[in-house]
Amino acid sequence: MEKKFARTLVTTALPYANGPVHIGHLAGVYVPADIYVRYLRLKGEEVLHVGGSDEHGVPVTIRAKKEGCTPQDVVDRYHSIIKQAFADFGISFDIYSRTTSETHHKHASDFFRKLYEDGKFVEMESEQYYDEEAKQFLSDRNIVGECPRCHADGAYGDQCEKCGSTLSPDELINPKNALTGNPLVKRNTSHWYLPLNDYQGWLEKWILEDHKEWRSNVYGQCKSWLDAGLRPRAVTRDLEWGIPVPVEGAEGKVLYVWFDAPIGYISNTKELLPNDWEKWWKDESTRLIHFIGKDNIVFHCIVFPTMLKAEGSYILPDNVPSNEFLNLEGDKISTSRNWAVWLHEYLVDFPGKQDVLRYVLTANAPETKDNDFTWKDFQARNNSELVAIYGNFVNRALQLTKKYFNGIVPEAGELTDYDRETLKEFSGVKEEVEKLLNNFKFRDAQKEAMNLARIGNKYLADTEPWKLAKTDMPRVQTILNFALQLVANLAIAFEPFLPFSSKKLREMLNLESFDWANLGKIDLLPAGHTLGEPQLLFEKIEDAEIDAQTARLERIKKENEVNSFTPEPVAPVVSFDDFCKVDIRVGKVLECEKVPKADKLLKFKIDDGMGGRTIVSGIAKYYKPEDLVGKEVCFIANFEPRKLKGVESQGMILSAENADGSLVVIGPQGEVKPGCKVG
């Protein structure tokens, strides 16, 4: 029998306060959580939505050192940017706080201290890399070296960003301090560990037997970790930035960020409700739900529950609806490569269109597998769904009511068979949307809500009240009353998904609020009710707006290709005598034209100082023929002639391949007579 809960506590993963947030964050965690919270509130349930910024850890210290400021400066700046971005997109937190707060520092310290005093940790010694000049141990991310897989220089101690391999510092070739370049040595250091292996049996039962209803991607990742066998995990580390370890002999050590951060859910609740927080964390009638991305599954399903179990007085998560990753235009979102759509920048380019992005991200939600965001799909969904279906139906219904009844809801007459068929089509929408939302299937739930708009659009198109107005006004009254009831239903159904447009629609309907229980009813607007002024609910997005976004991404891609350029390995050594066999000369381009039926080829007439020659070169993609006429180029004069698309080429023009794959023709720096040798 399914357990009934008195209230629901929803937490969302704490974003690192070392940079702004992007659409991947929104799609993976915050929009799904907000949909769920808004849905529960509409139902009148007791719910609390807790979030905050994760402000400790190595990424913050790296950012601070790069910018020449303090870690506190970094987190103050980005906490403000992140918090504002979430507010701008309607993410309805009850509290959005931070892990540098006084409340959090105290609660995290007390939590550690209790586990320490209860003997829940084990102290272990290990060898770690140490910078003797800087007099500090280094985190994995602060160590760089040569990748043992692809041999790229600058690979981090946890990952090579060139080939994507997961690494450990011990695998790097010639490891050094990422910031100073100092060589490193190994030194012993002592830390406290949470012995996850001691909780293996309990976790196997709690997850694999008691929570088979979890999403397959969550359940599968947990099972993989458990099958591999759990090991002790360090809860402290040698760093200056963080919460000091509150025991003697721990000078220079702080709580590891993975241990400190999830406690932030508790401390933020305590900050909001100092006298009532335990009801949300220690009462078995509270349901705890964690919304996270897939990179946090292990921490929220295995590590944090083990911490709570070890402490002994806290409830455990009932569900962890984790999403996979959202890609951007077929490529993984990367903050370091600027391959992202940043929320604060989106609102500059698309002011007032928060709901459009919410809608598209939910429609493409990576619920059980990675999904892709493209600007063309963004435009298509806005124009063909939000504008052409939802917005069109609403506008028609309200404008026709304004035209024929002065914006007053008309009295409905007797329903026809077609009306009743239409009513039957959407009568089960409330039950279906609820079932999908209760099972965290937000993509399908939004699709079901949009089906209401499809039904309404079809209803008006089929009944054609604008034609009947000439002969049968009583029927027009019934049609428009019925259509307006559908519009009111849309305002309810879309409230969790599109809060801004739902608010705008309620204003047009001249109603302050709706109750979720009313979804599916056709008496929401009484006859005689005066409507507000009709407005367009959504606007068409033009090609030029999308072209600007795709052009921006193309620029970023080219910049990344140049910045990440690694020269090809040098070819095998050749002798001087072999090199001298290649006769490289300077020539002047007299004529240049495209080779018919060959997109890549250009045909050159070259003044080679020896009577002239024809050379065919595959550089048409990078040059216009007229731009090359009159230029001096280097070419191989003794290259064996060969036919290309029917044209005999008597040499090879030299060009260099750039980092982005483009070709650049090679020529002398100063004026040189045609026929002169290069060597």
Short description, anyone?
By secondary structure, the chain is α+β, with helices and mostly antiparallel strands.
**Global morphology:** flat
The CATH class label of the largest domain is Alpha Beta
The overall average pLDDT, rounded, is 93
Alpha-beta classification: alpha+beta
Query: Biggest sheet, open or closed, and with what strands and sense?
Result: 6 strands, antiparallel
Total number of distinct structural domains: 4
**Amount of beta strand:** 15-25%
What report would you give on this structure?
- The chain starts with 6 loop residues before the first strand and ends with a strand.
- By secondary structure, it is of the alpha+beta class.
- Strands 17, 18, 19, 20, 23 and 26 form a six-stranded antiparallel β-sheet that branches. Strands 3-2-1-13 form a four-stranded parallel β-sheet.
- A hairpin with a 4-residue loop joins β4 and β5.
- 41% of the residues lie in helices and 17% in strands.
- The protein has four domains: 175 residues, HUPs (Rossmann fold), CATH 3.40.50; 111 residues, Methionyl-trna Synthetase, domain 2 (Beta Complex), CATH 2.170.220.10; 147 residues, Isoleucyl-tRNA Synthetase, Domain 1, CATH 1.10.730; 103 residues, Nucleic acid-binding proteins (OB fold (Dihydrolipoamide Acetyltransferase, E2P)).
- The model has no long low-confidence stretch (mean pLDDT 93).
